[in-house]
């Protein structure tokens, strides 16, 4: 699927609504439509990258920016000290369903390990 066809590209373009909680010049973050925890936010880059496998050296700073955004969101959500989890799924066995990379930020309850 071409990235411009993903639901996340439509959210970036403002073509479909999202509950945006953070944005800067590099990333956008919004609440997951099907939350798996009291806080479940998706941090996505503005530039399209389909999967972790498609990352290039030029994206190194971008990944850092995604994590800085995740930490800021966790502080804003009040879960920084209680704790949270960041997850980026890749391809079928990783459970990826939207092919525009995204960092899940999950918290607000005790999360189990290992994941299913
Ligand atoms: P993945 O399974 O690819 O790691 O995660 C994709 C996530 O995107 C899922 O948690 C799913 O609930 C979320 N999602 C899918 N479509 C939409 C949408 O239209 N809006 C929002 N806010 N989240 C979505």
Task: List the topology elements.
Blueprint: H1 7-12, E1 20-23, E2 27-31, E3 39-45, H2 60-77, E4 84-87, H3 91-94, E5 103-107
Antiparallel strand pairs: 1-2, 2-3, 3-5, 4-5
The structure holds guanosine-5'-monophosphate.
- Give a count of the beta strands, DSSP E runs of length 2 or more: 5
User: Helix/strand/pairing class, anyone?
Assistant: alpha+beta
Helix % is: 10-25%
Shape: globular
Low-confidence stretches: none
Across the major sheet, the strand order is 1-2-3-5-4
Helix-strand topology string: HEEEHEHE
What's the mean pLDDT score?
96
Largest sheet: 5 strands, antiparallel
Distance between the termini: 26 Å
Total of helices? 3
Give the amount of beta strand, in percent: 15-25%
Radius of gyration (CA) equals: 14 Å
Q: Hetero groups bound?
A: guanosine-5'-monophosphate
Please explain how this structure is put together.
With 116 residues, the chain is of the alpha+beta class. The chain is 24% helix and 22% strand. The protein has 3 helices and 5 strands. The protein has helices at 7-12, 60-77, 91-94; strands at residues 20-23, 27-31, 39-45, 84-87, 103-107. It has a 5-stranded antiparallel sheet, with helices on one face. The radius of gyration is 14 Å and the shape is globular. The mean pLDDT is 96. It binds guanosine-5'-monophosphate. The site of guanosine-5'-monophosphate (5GP) has 13 residues, from strand 2.
